[in-house]
Structures are given as C-alpha cells and as structure tokens.
Amino acid sequence: MNPVVESQGTGQQGHQHNNVAAPTVVPRIDILETKDEVQLLVDLPAVEPAGVQLEVHEGELQLIAIPANTDRPEAKSLLHEVKQVQYKRHLKLADSLDHEKVWAEQALGVLRIHLPKKAEIQKRKIEVRQA
Amino acid sequence: MRRISWNLLPVSPLQSFFSADLEQVFDQLVQGLKSPDPNPGQSLRLNVWESGQTVIVEGDLPGVGPENLSIEVGPDGLLEINAKSEAQPLPEGATWVRRERKSRDWNRSLQLPFRVDPSKVEATLKNGRLVVTITKQAENGPRRIPVSHA
Fold this sequence. Notes:
The complex is a heterodimer of chains A (131) and B (150).
Chain A: E1 4-6, E2 16-17, E3 24-25, E4 29-33, E5 37-43, E6 52-57, E7 60-65, E8 76-80, E9 86-93, E10 103-107, E11 110-116, H1 119-122
Parallel strand pairs in A: 3-9
Antiparallel strand pairs in A: 1-9, 2-3, 4-5, 5-11, 6-7, 7-9, 10-11
Chain B: E1 5-7, H1 13-17, H2 20-33, E2 42-43, E3 47-51, E4 54-60, E5 69-73, E6 78-84, E7 95-99, E8 105-111, E9 116-126, E10 129-136
Parallel strand pairs in B: 1-8, 2-8
Antiparallel strand pairs in B: 3-4, 4-10, 5-6, 6-8, 9-10
C-alpha cells in the first residue's frame, strides 16, 4: 500500500493556480521508504524555515510554504522570469505512519519531511514455529 | 552543452502569454524533437535588476551547493551559470516510492547589455536561491579637452 497518497482537490504537481495575491504552485516531491520511515523531499527554493507551515490534521499532511519576497522596488527590472508564488500540497498519510512524530529539516532549499513508521510496524517480525 | 543566449529585449505579447508551466511543457516538447543533448539540463529562470552601477541576477537552484555551481562573467557582459544538484543517495535498504522532481541540472547564458567589471562580481546561495551581484564597468565617457591660448 502506498504510504502517502494525494488528497483530493490539490491538483497536479507543478500546476499553478491563479490567485490574486500570488499564484499557488503544487511543489514536486520525491518519496522514499526505509525500514523505519518514509521521507518526502520537496523543492522549496527561497523559503526560510519560518516560511514553512507543516501540519498533520486528521491523517492529512498539509504543507504551505511562502518564499521570501525579493522584489526590489528601488531597482529597475530588466528580466522577470522567477515569479512570486506560494507552495501548497496536501497528502493523505497511511495509518501505518506515526502521525505524532512527523518532523522536517531544510537544507539548500530542499525540505526533507520524515514520517516515522509506527513502532509495531517497524518491529514486524514473522515468527516461524516448528510444525 | 546546451546554451541559451538571451538579449534583454522586451518580450513580445506571445512570449508573455506563456506561463512558467507552459514554458516547461514547451521546452520538453522541443527537447523531444531535437537530437539527444549530450548535457541535458533545464534553462535556469532568472530575474535581473538594475540599480545604478549595480546589476543583480537571481535564480532558484534547490539542492545545489556552492561546490556544484559555476558562474562565469566576461567583461563583455556575458554571464554563464551552470549548476548541478547534489545527488540524493538512497539510504541503505531504501526504495523510491515516487519521483516527481525532474532534471537536477540547470544552465543559462545571459548577455547583459553593458560591459562589467569581472573583478567586482559576488554570488551568494541562501535557501536554494542564487543572487549574483555585478558591477558595471565605469564608462569612459567624452572628456572635455581644455584649449589654451598659444
């Protein structure tokens, strides 16, 4: 079973939704699974740790991230290809994950979210009995 | 190496029509029609600001460390940026469940419309955003020649 699945109504990854303030972008993610946990890697360039809002609510992981505003009103814009956006993505977590122990770290503009597996899942060992 | 040279000319209405995502899709379609690129990467999107004698170039490079970033600036104003994101090694026994993040290489050549002083270029990387600060070369403007009486 997939440990993390898309919630309804979040759209496709990389898709932009027009918004009056800043367009919302669904950030692309990589997901890997180890023996003890599931990790999500999310590109969040120009986002300070304080700009990341990460919540788990009723089995759903909600990520909202707002990059630092680097508009320079005092300067003349010669080229403007990097738009001011906000990142948003909702993911439904499997019950096998410990929703209370989710944590995250950030480096080089990449957020790594750790989703530990429940203890009973980690220790799952098949006992072999003698017939 | 794939190099895209941009002159800082006003974009046409057609260019401005394309959103960032549509440009990505278009890039992929065009790439599919071309012969295989020996050094595939994606064009780095940039913002360029001018303030007096200073020019600031910004772009997003998530996952790139300083050791994997090359920036070259010539006195003629040609700026070249090549970056490669650090490989994400899988922990032992781990498996990928999903991979959405695509090419992790970026490159871009940009012709700035003025000469620059290559000795006065600084670059910083913070939270995956690159900021390059460039100083224009002082112009040798017309000099008034004093004429004395013979």
